[in-house]
Amino acid sequence: MLQVYFRISLMAILLVTSVAAGPGPDEKTLDLFLDGIIKRLEEKDIAGYLAFLTPDLRDSENAAVRSYFDVFEMDRLTLRMSGRGSDETGRPVVFLQAFFQNEHAVIAENWKFFMERLDGRWRIIRREPSGSVANLYKLQIPSGRYGRSSRVEIEHRDIKIVFEEAAVFFDNIPHLDTALVVLGKGHLTFQPSDDIEKHQLELMYGRPILEDTLDHVFLRCSNHFFLTRVTIRDFEDDPRVAVSETEKKSAAAVFSRNYGRSFTIESPMDQGLLSFLPQGDEAVFDFRGRKTGLMTYIYHPFSEEEISLFDRTKNRIVNMYSPRRADEERLPRMFVSFGEKFDVRHYDLDVDYNPESSSLSAKARIRIASRVEALDAVKFRLNPDLEILKVRDPAGRDLFVTQDRLRNLFYAYFIVPPERGEPFELEIEYRGRIFPIPPMSDVLSQSRVRDQVVVFRPRYETYLFTHNALWYPAPADEKYFTARMRIVVPPGYVCLSVGNPAGSNGSSSFLWETRTPVKYLAFIVGRFDKTQSRDSPVPFSVHVSSEISVPWRELAEKSSEILEFYSGLFGPFPYDSFRVVHRLWPVRGGHSPPSFIVLNEPPWIGERRYGLALNSPVDVSAREDYFLAHEIAHQWWGQAVSWATYRDQWLSEGLSQYAAVLYLRKQFGEREFGGIIKKLSRWTEKKSHRGPVILGSRLSYTDYEAFQAIVYNKASLALHMLSDILGEDLFYRCLREFFREHRHGRARTGQFIQAVEKTSGRDLQDFFQGWFFRHELPRVRFSSQVEKTENGFRTRIRVFQPHDVFVFPLWVEWRIGRISHRAMIVVDGPQVEAVWETEERPRRIRINPDGLVPGKFQKL
User: Fold this and answer.
1) Consecutive 10-residue runs of the chain (860 residues): their mean pLDDT?
2) Is 151 in a helix, a strand, or coil?
3) Nearest to residue 123, comparing CAs of 36, 250, 202, 242?
4) Parallel, antiparallel or unpaired: strands 509-518 and 843-847
5) Taking the mean position of all CA atoms in its chain, how far away is CA 163?
6) Cα(623)–Cα(391) distance, integer angstroms
7) How far is CA 806 from CA 751, 758, 800, 803, 830, in A?
């Protein structure tokens, strides 16, 4: 989530490098000519530089080059060769990186020099800037401007910070205010203008408003923001009102600790930090409160969630939202994304991984297509422990790369921007030591376990690398692509990966390729035995870790049954083949990358498992089939159809939980189903107060069990309720249509609602609003009355919702003799009544017998 700190600006495109062509005619003479140009320019000998140009170019170049020193007040220039090429006539073209700077600013450009040999001598016939100019700054605090103020006010949307009698430190940029440190006794007031976010604040801090005493604030903003949102009263920089040396050191420490967190990139020359300017109302406040600790407030206009409040002390998101103005309520909001500027089409990966030394070296060839006219840079995610050795463009030129290690990002900058829509390929070489990181999505795991005391603990010798490990250059924003991977491991190990086996080169080289687009790449290495395989209807195989002494003999049969069941409900299996990897692991659960799943088996110590689950939200069934069914469901929900934002994560976890429960119902009957529903409902009632389903993974910041209980279980319950309201056949058709429409893409909650409404022809806004967008549960009062009639008995059920109104199916159960009967009432208003006739008197009337509808039911 910290990526919201860092905004990529078109003005921040830096320098690039490329591999020089091999020696050719007059190469030595041309080298000397270029050395002379670089020497004259770096020595600011403009007249000497002009002598290398054709006469008709000298006047315009004289004015252009001098403007860097005279107008922009740069005092030095560094030039670096990037590479060579030729134009359409065969004349040499030389690429140079020009890096102008002074004590507080930088201008960086790529230059093309077009050369021609005239009268036996080389001459420059044209200089052409290539790419965008980058105006960057070398910020420093404290600078020469500081003093005291009687009152400092910083106010924006939902936040206000006020300091009395404060020491104020400005940045060092002349005629421009973009950074500020304030020390003293300050007061914070923050009140979200969003009801869900107020509730989250209240859960964390006991009140829907956050107030605290501050000792400092560091502000990064635009000059416009400073002029309109910052008030500094009675500022005095008179030496008689001195700022102490201790305060200067404190200001320097605050600046140093926070500066690199926002609006900065690494210098291409010395890896120091350079800053670009925030735009408009864009701003970041870093501050420390007496009660709250270190926190950051971010305003990022035009993003999907404009306001963020992050607790850096506890490493958790407090609030993320976009407040709407009154005149915006019915208008769609605009947001921008750097990731939308290019598509990733295909990966070719050569990977060498040694689990014994944790070393990985790889070469990635990534096929990309630009979605804009001038794509100056691309952004990828990569583990910062991996060293980037080379990034080459399609012409084989080395591109310059900067890394943002805080957010696990790197940027590659083009010499010549690719044309829109034209595919091109980047080649990236990297290496380093890397360790598996537990996956955080498309996963089911116990939240807590109790360990037995044993002398010898089991060894877990499987190594799973999924998207969380950032083991390959992944798109910063999720995209679907195809891939071909060759993975080399030491002898004795087996590597399983996404896609289809495509042959091997020896016993330790494994080749995999995906014909169907996937959203990320993953592989697992271990000592596996292939125990079972089947060719149809979906070719699949079962691979068991050698650490498991007693494999699950029915694993292939169960997997086949589940695949067939889901294919009937949701549509054909979305990949060409499928594998199940059964491994030893401390806790039950698993993970589901595209086209294969990893199923965890806790070891046995004596007569019981080593990892004993406590009462966990996801342990809704004692059946072994449950974890298998949930992970296989992710092949449809989570992989083939993904979720767009954390608010839509239930589309993966909730739908997979729903599917797994359906399978258990089919296999083990209504009694098993009723018990599972009661567990889902019990956990929902226990944890629903933590927030609505659409808070997704944010719920885990304060309560991981709440995340599982709400995103997995409550969402699953809501889907079962919706199935009852619409009817199973119609609801399954809604799911198939939704899957068909969004396959190989990221879907949103609103798109799911739209798809179900379109297919069913029903208005379901009230249903989804209650169950997905609110944390409250129904509070229901009901009455039942049985009357004697001429032909038998009339039962009348009245249902009241005196508070919030929810839409839900209410099952009523009664007995006549030894036989149980059921009927359903659709409750869709504050008061609903249902009547039915029976020949005999109904006995033991029960409302909501399985607890399908969580909440409070009180009989009148």
Assistant:
1) 31 31 55 92 95 94 94 91 83 88 88 90 89 76 91 94 95 92 97 95 95 97 93 76 90 95 79 86 95 95 90 94 62 46 95 96 97 89 94 84 83 85 94 86 58 52 93 93 96 94 78 95 93 81 86 88 96 95 89 95 63 68 89 97 96 97 95 94 96 96 93 98 97 98 96 97 97 97 92 94 95 91 95 92 92 94
2) strand
3) 36
4) unpaired
5) 36
6) 50
7) 21, 21, 11, 9, 8
